[in-house]
Amino acid sequence: MSDPAEVHALDPESFEERVHSFQFWFESVQGYLAGREYGHRPDAEDPPLEESERDRLVTVLCNYCVGETAALDGASGLVAAAPNRLTKIFLSTQVVDEGRHLEVLRHRLVELGVERPEEEVERRVSPRLRDFRQRLDALVAQRDWDAAIFAQNVILEAMEFSTFHMHAQFADPLTRELLIGIIKDERRHIGFGETELGRRLRVHPTLRDRLLRVRSQLDPLVLATFEDAMSELQVPRAEREDLGRSYLGAVERLGVRA
Length: 258
What we know:
- The chain is mainly alpha-helical.
- It has helices at 4-8, 12-19, 22-33, 51-79, 85-111, 117-124, 127-141, 145-168, 173-203, 207-232, 237-252.
- The model has no long low-confidence stretch (mean pLDDT 91).
């Protein structure tokens, strides 16, 4: 496995070539996926949950499945629109990541006794998250590279990263293992989005206004989705505010501020 310090010592062109490769992806994921079955250790503790707690967790995981499906469809759809070889390869690795996330979350629903996960997901999905997915799908269908990457690899990934990080702090042991593995992938996806858009913003300064318009449409849906999930998880109000700040900070690192 490569030494991270050595990777960051590379010149910009070599660094990009390296971190967008399948080889780097494999080295990144093997450390936290080796020996796992559906995202967790085979002997991971899975204590019984109270029925009300289980029901709330099922609702949250159903919505996580919708978010991961949106990212899976988005990444796969954007491969054809990607402007060069390196972005195509990175998005190919992201497609694999998102497919794995969807698989392990669906399997967790089965472990929790959900007999028909797809039907349960459709029944429990937040209307705000459904709306977000439709808007992302539209940007991908239009091959609007900048707006779609911003919506997917910055806004959606930041939403998922912030939510999963918060949830993992008090989740049951088995769910925590799933989320920690997913979070590590989300960091890589966000890094790609920030790097790609940061480069394009330097060349096309007016792009910032375009992304700001996208953000103004999507922020209310993201923040409402946060509220839905945190309400189900019974997260205290003060911590919900921390979650919102975490998301906004991630989005604003590009300088796209309302």
